[in-house]
Write a structure and sequence with these properties.
Blueprint (H helix, E strand, L loop, with lengths): L3 H13 L2 E3 L6 E3 L4 E6 L2 E6 L7 E5 L5 E6 L10 E3 L3 E5 L8 E7 L11 E2 L7 E4 L4 E3 L4 E3 L6 E3 L7 E8 L3 E11 L7 E8 L5 E7 L5 E15 L2 E11 L7 E10 L2
Keywords: Signal
Length: 262
């Protein structure tokens, strides 16, 4: 399912002719007024020719973990900080910086702009791994946080926000659902529904989860919350809160479906 905000953005850019194609990767990214964005394999280059009015450069949200964020050709440049938003990532540009200059964002895997869901397939062990960076987030606050010390969906302060992952099952079977979940001290107790839905909506299975206090939102504990019985086909897992106990629901780094030998 394509996020409506992404679809509207792309349609507007196509109609106005303001679409830049990254030739090396096949990914499409919007043109910008302060310079240009280039995708080269596992890195994004933000080439800054003029100071952006907002003081920030931004790029569309990626389905990628961030490995590093540096100035290209300027190892002693001022520190850079990524600020992830639900649909875009922002980086503040110091007013004292000499222009033109280039910011280099390096990722662990080839760059993928998050315009459509990633559909996971079973690995060689039959496991289906659903990482945070492939989550489709919905709502006002929930987002993927790609920084190396985070690598999670987080900022889950609105109980109406929810997330989904897409995957395909090749062989019928029973799968344990394991969630790597983190929650800040004193924030445990939120109630969450983990729902597995077939593509045509004919199959729907629900596992309840009460969020565990792990001492920190990025202190992740893997929890086996129940079993899904799945036939071959395409599915999605939806994680929808029913209640928020304190400041935020939880962080989720990964969901894994592990086949059970019967």
């Amino acid at each position: 399912m394509i996020r409506i905000s992404h679809l509207l953005l792309l349609c507007a850019l196509i109609l106005s002719g303001r679409l830049l194609h990254a030739q090396s990767s096949g990914e499409e990214i919007p043109d910008v007024g302060w310079g240009k964005i280039e995708i080269q394999g596992k890195e994004v280059l933000l080439v800054i020719d003029s100071m952006p009015e907002s003081g920030f450069v931004s790029l569309p949200r990626l389905n990628n973990r961030m490995k590093s964020l540096t100035w290209r050709g300027m190892p002693d440049g001022p520190d850079l900080k990524l600020q992830p938003e639900p649909t875009q990532w922002r980086i503040e540009v110091p007013k004292s910086i000499d222009l033109p200059t280039t910011i280099r964002l390096e990722t662990f895997q080839p760059v993928r702009v998050a315009t459509k869901p990633v559909v996971a397939r079973p690995n060689h062990d039959g496991e289906i791994v659903l990482p945070a960076h492939d989550a489709v987030t919905h709502g006002e606050k929930l987002r993927f946080e790609p920084q190396p010390h985070k690598n999670t969906i987080g900022y889950w302060t609105d109980v109406n926000d929810w997330a989904e992952w897409h995957f395909r099952v090749d062989q019928a079977g029973r799968f344990e659902c394991r969630i790597a979940q983190g929650c800040g001290k004193g924030n445990g107790g939120s109630e969450v529904d983990v729902i597995c839905v077939s593509e045509d909506g004919s199959q729907r299975q629900l596992l309840p989860l009460v969020v565990e206090d792990t001492g920190h939102f990025q202190n992740f504990v893997v929890r086996m919350i129940g079993l899904f019985d799945l036939q071959p086909g395409r599915y999605r897992i939806e994680v929808r809160p029913r209640s928020k106990a304190k400041a935020a629901v939880c962080d989720i780094r990964q969901i894994k479906l592990v086949p059970v030998q019967i």
